[in-house]
Specification:
389 residues, alpha/beta, VC0802-like, 9-stranded mixed β-sheet, binds adenosine-5'-triphosphate, binds magnesium ion
């Protein structure tokens, strides 16, 4: 039996007149991602997207795996397709469903008739197919309330579609429907999760990483690239800007009071990031900050960094506990890489007693001996760009 994939979008159904813009973005992502798994036609009809393999050189399981990471997809399922004819359905369905049905004890059949010209009603289709399956699989029982599996038959325009279990999709909104933003990415657990969560809301990601060689190693940079690769499996290609940060950190440590090192370093990161982000068409920055997690993530410290950012800062983890963040990082497979013990620039020049409650104006005073603009210009002129996919 010919097999296809049926896709349902989720929140897109709330989008009214914009709906087709969202659907088209999702479909173009699906087409792009499936290319490497063979030839597939991707079309939409009513509220379903149909993915049909063409010819015979395609990898169906790899296609299913790719679809599980495309935002905008609420659910997807593999389905067997046959002619819209009751006898054909009764012959083809038991063969197609054999593997699934051998692994369950109870089932029910649900029929949907989009094509009202089909000469049987939905209850009739369910009864006929249910009877046939009981006959072919004597170990099965019908359970209409809590079946192990629901077998669905849909009589649609192009044929009869028979399917078993439905998989949950990645959810969210299609990539590219919310504009661009730049994530400040470290090698830690939090920022890759923050990147993933904002990409899930439709944002196209760029990334900015500050490196301070020789205090930070090339392995720390490789770690960031590995993390972004994992995020890109969901978000699509990410443009990464590697910013040289050594001079700035050395200048801060020479010219500023020690208890302000971290705050001033973070303010420098924000200033530079906002500038890079704007030049790259981004509307905001994203960080992995979570309230109270460390000294630089108190409300006054966050306010002190926000006041120097020329763009809004999105902090999707702000209200999350570490264990909640870890669950997501395991799900997106960044956790194992994040916990590799390579130093980040934040751990270099760490003050013994960091300031946690800076008052307005105190950061400016602590920065007064720093030549801010030339330092920023030099850092920006040393940026290296890479595309991570
Ligand atoms: P993470 O787990 O993301 O490293 P963290 O809990 O270690 O976060 P901080 O080190 O205070 O927290 O960093 C807070 C945020 O600042 C990070 O989530 C990230 O967005 C940004 N950041 C930290 N270090 C860097 C860096 N070297 N380059 C770019 N952004 C950074
Ligand atoms: Mg960190």
């Amino acid at each position: 039996m010919k097999e296809v994939i049926l896709i349902k979008d989720g929140e897109l159904s709330l989008k009214g007149l914009n709906r087709s813009v969202f659907e088209d973005k999702m479909i173009s992502t699906i087409k792009r991602r499936l290319k490497e798994h063979g030839a597939f036609s991707v079309t939409k009809s009513q509220s379903t997207v149909y993915v049909e393999p063409q010819g015979d050189s395609f990898d169906f399981s790899a296609a299913l795996d790719s679809l599980s990471r495309i935002f905008g997809i609420a659910a997807y399922t593999r389905a067997g397709v046959c002619e819209k004819d009751m006898n054909t359905i009764l012959i083809e369905a038991p063969n197609y469903l054999e593997n699934i049905l051998n692994n369950v004890k109870t089932f029910k059949v649900e029929a949907k008739r989009a094509d009202k010209k089909f000469p049987f009603t939905s209850p009739e289709i369910s009864a006929e197919l249910g009877g046939k399956l009981l006959e072919n699989f004597p170990h099965l029982r019908v359970d209409v309330h809590t079946p192990d599996i629901v077998i669905t038959v849909e009589i649609r325009e192009k044929g009869a579609y028979i399917r078993g279990e439905q998989y949950k999709g990645a959810g969210g909104l299609p990539t590219g429907t919310a504009g661009k933003a730049a994530v400040l990415i470290s090698g830690g657990i939090d920022s890759p999760v923050a990147a993933y969560l904002m990409a899930k809301r439709g944002i196209t990601l760029s990334a900015i990483h500050f490196a301070s060689p020789p205090y930070t190693s090339i392995r720390a940079e490789e770690k960031v690239k590995t993390l972004l690769k994992k995020v890109a499996r969901y978000s699509g290609t990410i443009k990464l800007c590697l910013v040289p940060f050594t001079e700035i950190q050395e200048e801060i440590s020479k010219n500023c009071p020690e208890d302000y090192f971290t705050l001033i370093m973070r303010r420098m990161m924000m200033r530079i990031s906002a500038r890079i982000a704007k030049e790259n068409g981004c509307f905001s920055l994203i960080t992995g900050e979570s309230l109270g997690q460390v000294a630089s993530q108190t409300l006054p410290a966050i306010a002190a960094t926000d006041e120097v950012s020329e763009l809004p800062v999105l902090r999707p983890l702000i209200g999350m506990d570490k264990d909640e963040i870890v669950i997501i990082s395991k799900k997106i497979d960044t956790f194992g890489t994040s916990i590799l013990p390579y130093e980040d620039c934040c751990t270099v020049f760490t003050p013994r007693h960091p300031h946690t409650r800076p008052k307005k104006g105190q950061c400016e005073a602590a920065e007064k001996n720093l030549d801010i603009e030339p330092l920023i210009d030099r850092a920006i002129s040393g940026i290296e760009y890479l595309y991570i996919e």
